[in-house]
Amino acid sequence: MKQYYLLIPAVHVLANELYNRVIKDNKERIILVGRCVGAGIALNCLKSLVTFDENKDYFAGSLVKSREDAQAIIAAINKGAFIASVPLLSLERYNAVAVPGSALTALTYTAGSLALMNSGADKILHDVEPDMQPAVGLAGVALASVSGGYLKEFYTKMIAKFIVPLISRFNYDSNHEQPIDRIEVLKGKITAPVLLHFLEKDEVIQWLNDDLRRLCDTFSGKNAYLLTTNDVGHMQMSPEFLSVMNGDFLDNIAQAGSSMQERCELIPEGRPKAQRCTVEGLDEKIHPYGIFSRMWGHHKYALGGIILFCLISLMPELRKQIMPA
Amino acid sequence: MIKHSNLLMILCCFYVSLHASEQQKQTALSNAHVIYSHPYLEQSLILYNDNFKVKISGKDRVVTFYKNRTIEDSKGKAIRLGDNDETFISSSAQKFAWLGDSLSVPAYPDAPGKWSEAVLFTNTGGTCISK
Asked: What is the four-CA torsion angle of A254, A256, A258, A263, rounded to 10 degrees?
């Protein structure tokens, strides 16, 4: 397997398909539907089309030869719609890459803690005044929370950059941009109705993070909607998504200018509702407990390592208190 | 009598307009083409039927739906039938066929799971076997 995920060969295939339908077949409207990697390829293709002049060589070898071609394709999509279901925004958010990155972070902190203990560093904590011990502990937590995210990011980047190309026998070009990279170039360029769909419990991709904020910020507007469902796993097509898409979203694109928000309010309780795609309130969703969620979400392994270290360090004291000689 | 005929005319117009709006709902946009950018790995919920000949393909496939014909699967759900007597049955592509009047699926290079298409052939109907 050559692993052309998200890369130029796949983007060219989609660009050629768009060219054939818009330029050759004179289709006025294109409804571009992408799912998972397919949605990632679509985002990469859209970004390259709207910035055609900046990197003309990107489409070398494809049917898209001129800025006029690219603009005609974008215009056709703007008359249609763009639908992305469970889009893969970055390979680093793919669990096969992200989870080993997290595991390596945890292992690093555990190994570091054990090394410190073996070197006798835990005795330093005992020498600190009892009143100051919580402050030292907090400083350690703060240090870990700051460094843990970077460490995880470092590991996931390294896996994406070196391990994935290795697995693909060096067919995967890790220098190619990810769908979320430069996503802001689409802001104001895609004016078609947009539906972004995610699964609450997605076992394949990690999406409830700052990437979602950037995506919503890019597509925020009158016609962009965000839908989260919780009915199936990643590999199945969500019936709730199809229900919303074939009902409300279809009406929305059929009757240009109608407010889907009003339509969504009519949907009975218990059924998923597509919300207007906006960054407002998104931070609360991504980090429901503010700084604590931010710290725990990004640095839970680092925090876990530090807490483990503190517990092990204080173990003799605890033992003395629990079992006095 | 004249009033009754007027009322009848109004009712007829009302029925026709309702019917027309229902038809419009079936096809969202005229001259709209749906491109389904499929995920490389997709759990295809293939529906086998005695009237279908399922074949695997990796080529770009374009199907039009101007004749607006449908067939039913084993659960009674409508599957949109292509004008050339073919329909997408695999993957999720055919679920999006309703959005426009034609549909295509680009064949990405080296996709591990090739999408399959089903060609309808005339034969005596048989029992549908799901999955």
From this structure: 30
pLDDT tens-place string over residues B96-122: 888 888 998 888 887 665 556 666 555
Helices (H), A159-277: 164-167, 210-219, 239-244, 250-254, 260-265
User: In A201-231, which positions are buried (b, 16+ CB within 10 angstroms) versus exposed (e)?
Assistant: ebebbbbbeebbebbbebbbbebbbbbbbee
CB A232 within 8 A of CB A238: yes
Residues A83, A34 contacting (CB under 8 angstroms): yes
Which residue among A21, A28, A254 places its CB closest to the CB of B35? A21
Whether the CA torsion A136, A140, A145, A146 is positive or negative: it is positive
Residues of chain A in contact with residue B97, where contact means CB-CB under 8 angstroms, are: none
Across A40-44, A210-214, A225-229, B5-9, which has the greatest mean pLDDT? A40-44
- In sequence order, the 6+-apart residues with CB closer than 8 A to the CB of A319 are none
The answer to whether B46 touches B110, Cβ cutoff 8 Å, is no
**pTM for the whole structure:** 0.76
Measured from the Cβ of residue B114, the count of other Cβ atoms closer than 10 Å reads 18
> Residues 21..50 of B with a Cβ closer than 8 Å to A: which?
24-25, 28-29, 31-43, 45
Q: Who among B28, B43, B99 is closest to A235 (CB)?
A: B43
Look up tokens 């990279």; give the residue: A181
Per DSSP, the three-state class of B86 is: strand
Alpha carbons A148 and A303: distance in angstroms, whole number:
8
In the block, tokens 């979602």 appear at: A212
Angle (CA) A110-A111-A117 rounded to 5° is 90
Lowest mean pLDDT among A33-42, A102-111, A119-128: A119-128
**How far apart, in Å, do the first and last CA atoms of chain A sit?**
65
Q: What is the ipTM of this complex?
A: 0.78
